[in-house]
Design a protein that fits this description.
mainly alpha; Tetracycline Repressor, domain 2; 2 domains; two-stranded antiparallel sheet
């Protein structure tokens, strides 16, 4: 019974990828409007698996540049749960961190498999578009990684049925591109929720049967907690909102490709300016609510740090909204500056106060 959830995922994968595979090979060429370019997808089943730059292509497919930021989220959540060197002696911490990495990579592979047609316009340098990696190779990679996640989850996180949370996250990520991504705003909420849940699930995985962790999670024992402040929940929501910010800005960047493929997003349905206004309202509400909490609980360093962390978001949002000639580079710079806000916020979390 432990494997029924994953069997459904694998069956669903084979069915959808087969359809996706046939559709992709029917696409011989597509014209990219404006640039007057023709991108051709060749049906080459004899593509050599081992060739020059193959590892680099796999790295690009899996987006390994996300490995370090993802692991830092695990460390942050772990340290908030066990603020001690004993965190790094905890087997569950390392196992769940590995599962998190595999899940992140899986989501990248399945996204590229289903988004091949869209990537011909929006991201024509992706490995599946350029045929650096074949569709069958990507499918095999996804399935093998998914089996690893299933086995690790069922064997090491069976307590309190925690493995079901991991299976659910992977199922949501599988359904995201072919189904959830087509539903306005749901796609953004889904991605942001998965990122935010990393903090909650990492903390939960460590404290399942760990008395040391549970004692630190007690409001009476841990200095990071008070009657008002639960830093794990607050950090999780901050990451959720930061991810939502990134998602919506990338939708602004991809607005033309999304329109071409009839993907309804907040920017191409309500307009770019209203998208910026929505984010400004969300960040304003979050800033006001949590600033009051930090102030009432006398966490003044968190109070100041939270304001500074949000300052970058407001600066970029007002700049983009008031600039009528925004290009992709400016949007990507605003997305990249999210790292600065996260560093400020995390520094204030971990410094003594």
């Amino acid at each position: 019974m432990k494997y029924w959830f994953n069997c459904i995922i694998l069956m669903f994968l084979f069915f959808n990828c087969k359809i996706n595979n046939s559709k992709c090979y029917m696409l011989k060429s597509i014209e990219i409007k404006g640039n007057k370019k023709i991108k051709t997808v060749l049906n080459d089943n004899n593509y050599n698996i081992i060739n020059k730059g193959k590892l680099l292509s796999y790295s690009k497919l899996l987006r390994t540049n996300n490995i370090l930021p993802t692991f830092l989220l695990n460390i942050l959540a772990g340290w908030l749960t066990i603020p001690s060197y004993k965190l790094f002696l905890n087997k569950k911490f390392w196992l769940f961190s590995l599962i998190t990495q595999l899940t992140m990579m899986n989501s990248m592979v399945i996204n590229d498999l289903f988004d091949l047609k869209i990537d011909l316009i929006n991201n024509n340098n992706r490995p599946l578009v350029t045929k650096e990696i074949s569709i069958k190779e990507a499918q095999c990679l996804y399935i093998s990684t998914n089996i690893m996640i299933s086995v690790l989850s069922a064997v090491f996180f069976y307590e309190k049925h925690f493995y079901k949370f991991i299976y659910t996250i992977n199922l949501i990520l599988f359904l995201y591109t072919p189904y959830l991504k087509k539903i306005i705003f749901i796609k953004n909420i889904t991605c942001a929720s998965v990122v935010g849940s990393t903090i909650l699930l990492t903390s939960k995985s460590i404290s399942l049967n760990n008395q040391f962790a549970l004692s630190f999670l007690s409001h009476k024992c841990i200095p990071y907690y008070s009657d008002y402040v639960n830093l794990i929940d607050i950090t999780s929501f901050f990451l959720f909102l930061s991810s939502l910010y990134i998602e919506l800005l990338l939708d602004v960047k991809d607005i033309h490709g999304d329109k071409e493929n009839n993907i309804v997003t907040i920017p191409n349905y309500f307009g770019v300016k209203k998208t910026y206004n929505l984010l400004i309202i969300l960040f304003s509400g979050n800033l006001l609510y949590h600033s009051v909490i930090f102030y009432k609980s006398h966490k003044y360093r968190l109070f100041i740090g939270f304001i500074l962390a949000n300052a970058h978001f407001f600066k970029n949002l007002f700049t983009l909204r008031n600039n009528k000639m925004v290009n992709d580079k400016q949007i990507l710079n605003s997305v990249n500056e999210t790292t600065v806000s996260l560093i400020i916020f995390i520094a204030c979390l971990l410094l003594p106060f």
